[in-house]
Amino acid sequence: MLLVDDSEDDALLLVRELKRGGIRPAFTRVDNGPDLFQALQNGRWDLVITDHNMPGFSSEEAIRMTHRQYPDMPVIIVSGTIGEEAAVKAMRAGAQDYIMKDNLSRLIPAINREIRESQIKLAKIQAETTLEHMAYHDSLTDLVNRREFDRRLQEALLDAQTTEHHHALMYLDLDQFKVINDTCGHVAGDEMLKQISMELARHIRPDDTLARLGGDEFGILLLNCDSENAFRLANILCEVVAEYRLVWQGHPFAVSLSVGLVFIDRNSTNTSDLLVQADLACYAAKDRGRNNVQVFQSDDKDMQQRQTDMQWTSRIHKALESSQFFLCQQPMLGLQESTRNLVQSEFLVRMRGNDNAILPGAFIPAAERFGLMHRIDRRVVEMAFQYLDRTGLGRADSGTFFINLSGGSLGDSELFQFIKALVSRYRIKPERVCFEITETAAIAHLASTIGFIESVRQDGFRFALDDFGSGMSSFSYLKSLPVDFLKIDGSFVKNMLNDPIDVGIVESCHRIGQAVGLKTIAEFVETPDVQKKLCEMGIDFAQGYGIARPAVVR
Q1: Closest C-alpha to 481, from 517, 433, 429, 511
Q2: SS3 string of 241-277?
Q3: Are the C-beta atoms of 357 and 351 separated by less than 8 Å?
Q4: Which of 16, 164, 506, 523 has the least C-beta neighbours within 10 A?
Q5: How far apart are CA 376 and CA 366, in angstroms?
Q6: How far apart are CA 451 and CA 411, in angstroms?
Q7: What is 170-217 written as a DSSP string?
Q8: Cα separation, 256 vs 94, whole angstroms
Q9: How far apart are CA 504 and CA 500, in angstroms?
Q10: Smallest Cα–Cα separation from 253: which of 308, 200, 309, 181?
Q11: So which residues are the catalytic ones?
Q12: Cβ neighbours of residue 163 under 8 Å, at least 6 residues apart?
């Protein structure tokens, strides 16, 4: 505690009053501006208590000086001479409270209140910092994630296009990694990924970027690196991984590395092409025996064939034209007394394959890459509305049914009119429908997202922010989005009983949701113990295989 008072006796009386109230502060007393400035510079303070009138110094100056260095530092005025008008002026200047010296009964409650509010602010800042870090880093390896890697790749491409600089892109894939997961479980697989990440990081320069792009796939961006050095480094990395052994339960396990290499120069076109080329080269490395490096060559027949294999465009078009998409429905469970009897479920899209259903993870990346996602979204919305009309659930007095929208659809200026036309055709109440979009897509299309949400909510629809916590870069984004539900990213939920960091992130997401009046939904709830923990936290709804598996909509 920092005391600003010209009277040592008054300061000691104040400290004595604090001790009588159970507070034993570590304190320093100053009585002028230079000493206050020095104390603020040299100490870590929780609170400033200042007199109002001192020779050559005032509480207003003390407040101004304190907040210049620490904008959130609580300041309380304790004075024997302050009048009401001066007190109001001081409060406007930033004081949290003013107390008369002849009546210190409010001092202890005021200090406890300010310390408590400071702790709440600190917790919120820590939560925002954690979420911001998670927006750009992989939660398992702490490497840069796909989103941040794409951004850095774009910067490197622009640099190469406007200068004579040359860069290199590597796409790395672990060979036979699935064997580790299948033999030893995901815990062993995760440990291998973390250790290999550290091994790879030791061999790149500080200005280069190593990222986990997903699963057992990594990306490396080498800045100002010629083809000879890039190729040599890629082979070194293959040797490093080949020599690595994971010892798990007394048994050694080994993997190898396949690397696709692309050079970035003035003739490179866009980041999507670069990533596809690196991916193609990596697959060629696998096809040619694994544990080797392949440089992308546009005239390579194997790579051309692989590129053809990657084209989902015709298959998606066919599925749209011949009604090969269908819906599944997954219920949510209310965890609190206020939500226990509420009916909620989510519609999930699938594509009919030759012998089984194709999950969205297989076709959605291609649909997004080739601009077909908005057509799939419209088909999903119409199928969901048809079901709600046929069953009467869309006209019921209660129930909420969630429909996913992609980020690309938010830029579709005709989507809202399309939805309004479906409402009239299928006779459903808009309040029965909640559209949801992932957090990362919402941030990437922030302006169009806000405009779309505001439009649909005016008609009674509700909105949910999905995968919250996976890409949140600032709490201010959430405050800008007028949503009703917050769906906490399941990657933090499924293993939260074994990871205190995941518990902290889930709790932080829930507190942030509560702060802005949103209902929270936890995804990937797979066990009763996780469900119980979420209930204790105050999470409103749970969704996952531990609650109910998706069932085909009939």
Answers
A1: 517
A2: HHHCCEEECCEEECCEEEEEEEEECCCCCCHHHHHHH
A3: yes
A4: 164
A5: 12
A6: 10
A7: EEEEEETHHHHHHHH-HHHHHHHHHHHHHHHHTTS-TTSEEEEEETTE
A8: 61
A9: 6
A10: 181
A11: 216
A12: none
* Cα–Cα distance, 6 to 78 (Å, whole number): 12
pLDDT exceeds cutoff 90 at 241: yes
Backbone angles phi, psi at 365, to 5 degrees: -55, -40
User: Mean pLDDT across the stretch 363-390?
Assistant: 90
Find the angle CA(296)-CA(301)-CA(303) to the nearest 5 degrees: 40
Instruction: Set out the domains of the chain in order of their start, with CATH numbers.
Output: 2-135 (3.40.50.2300), 146-309 (3.30.70.270), 315-552 (3.20.20.450)
Nearest by Cα to 2 from 34, 30, 37: 30
Looking up tokens 């020095």 gives: 38
- The partner residues of 117 in beta bridges, in order of sequence, read none
Please give the backbone phi and psi of residue 221, each rounded to the nearest 5 degrees, phi first.
Answer: -110, 115
> Which residue type, as a one-letter code, is found at position 432?
R
Type of residue found at 553: V
Reduced to 3 states (helix: H, G, I; strand: E, B; else coil), residue 348 is strand
What are the percentages of helix, strand and coil residues in the chain, rounded to 5?
A: 50, 20, 30
Reply yes or no on whether the pLDDT at 375 is more than 70. yes
Residue 224 backbone dihedrals phi, psi, to 5 degrees? 50, 55
Length of the chain: 554
Contact indicator for 203, 236 with CB cutoff of 8 Å: yes
Q: Please state, in angstroms and as integers, the Cα–Cα distance from residue 72 to each residue in 32, 75, 534, following that order.
A: 21, 9, 32
Band of pLDDT at residue 474, cut at 50, 70 and 90: very low
Mean pLDDT, the chain, whole residue set:
88
- Using pLDDT thresholds of 50, 70 and 90, give the confidence band for residue 214: confident
Q: Residue 423 CB: number of other CB atoms within 10 A?
A: 18
Asked whether 31 and 56 are in contact (CB, 8 A), the reply is: no
Residue 355 DSSP class: S
Cross-strand partners of 400: 344
| pLDDT tens for each residue of 105-125 | 788 888 888 888 877 777 777
